[in-house]
Amino acid sequence: MTHLENYRAEIKEEIEKTVGSVPVQPIVFAGSGLSIRYFSGPSWDQLLSQMASSCPKLEHNYGYYRQSRDATEMGSLLADRFSQWAWDKNEEKFSDIDLKYEDTPDIYLKTEISKYFKSITPDSAEDLKEEKLDEDLGLDQAQKEIRKLREIQPHAVVTTNYDRFLENIFNNEGREDEKYDVVVGEEILRSPHKSIGEILKIHGTVTDPSSLTLTSEDYEEFTSRKRYLSSKMLTYFAEHPLLIVGYSATDPNIRSILSWVNQLLPEDEVTAKDIYFLEFDRNIKEYEEYPRMKRIQLGKDRFISVNRIIARDFDWVFDAFASGEGFEVDVRYLRKLLANTYEVVRSKSSDERVVDHKRIEDVAEDKEELATVLGVSAGGKNRGFIFDHDLSPQEMYEKIGLSSAYDFKRKVLKPIYEETGMNITGFNNKYHIAFFNPSVTYRRYSDSAVDLFSEILAGNEFHIQIPKSRVDEEHESRGLDMSDILE
């Protein structure tokens, strides 16, 4: 193995150990670097410079104003000049906006920014364009990275990005109900309970231009709400591994987030062991030594150290974060179950239904009781929830082009067994789930299984995303009998 390959293997093993040691999903904190990487989205200064270049109310070039102003002050200046431009009686550019003097002056700049992002943001990974990718990134690699990012199944995605790229790639599955719920700005503060499966857009979104945090005034308001937002964020960061990607270490947003995390550490500790900072470096092969920690300044005499990952390709990093047990239930249903349970318990019913609080206590304390409520332990035709394992064995065979269980065992299960020592039909996992009763076993397979089995049949390299802790010693006796195909 090369020096770089050794580094990647060691980092991957460390990440897998971290995510495998906790029964929760990672949090992904994603910045504009992802937009830059996948569709040439602008940096903060590039965005403001582009807006400035189109505004006839500015007497000088962007750099002239920027040399004496920070980015938020530039946002305020541009907002004022765009407002002047919009109200010019000879100007038709803003004719599609119903001008009202009650509107905040910054709405015209924010509307223009929203239009710009909508025009450049791909609707899905399939809509990426080769010429818009990072110069060293091919289309196949970019789509592979996004596929691996989705497979992390993060508990939540937190972002300061305005564009809709993250919700497009996590939710674009041709379904009306979104897999991840998009929560914008102040809406984050209104959730009455800890949620799951959310994309938290803390600086606003292009679908609501007024929500964008852009000017000095916006940032002052954001700072005034910061202590409430930080308490919300701490509920996530206290228990979940955190992957930071698409930011630089000097980004004030990162310093703010890590300042929140710093509150969780003991006074004599400055290292956040479960936080990983992923940095892009196209010259990674030239390194003689790979640094493992990143020391980030938070303020005067204050700093925090996090795990540092240097990479040119991101797929192997995302794959490592996806190595945990994951959700066997579609995250949208977990979110709905959590929200509806909360509402049922807290609300008084108009039709005089009574909440059995003892039953709720039993379910909360006993996982077997919860399994009964959900129908997981049901046998026979009443299979309860099948979650996302909705393919019968025959349906699965048809999808991968096989005609019998024997061919499936010989061409698919055997290579998996020889590679991993696992008979994946002997226990419940992301690819297979079984409902056992004394007389018959009902088996179901997932779409992830179809993808995996197709790769194996095509002779491609494959990776089984099942933690070893999931496999018990008796699993072979419950799986499909492989004695007739194993030598």
UniProtKB/TrEMBL annotation:
Name of a matching Pfam family: SIR2_2
Protein's recorded name: SIR2-like domain-containing protein
Provenance organism: Halopelagius inordinatus
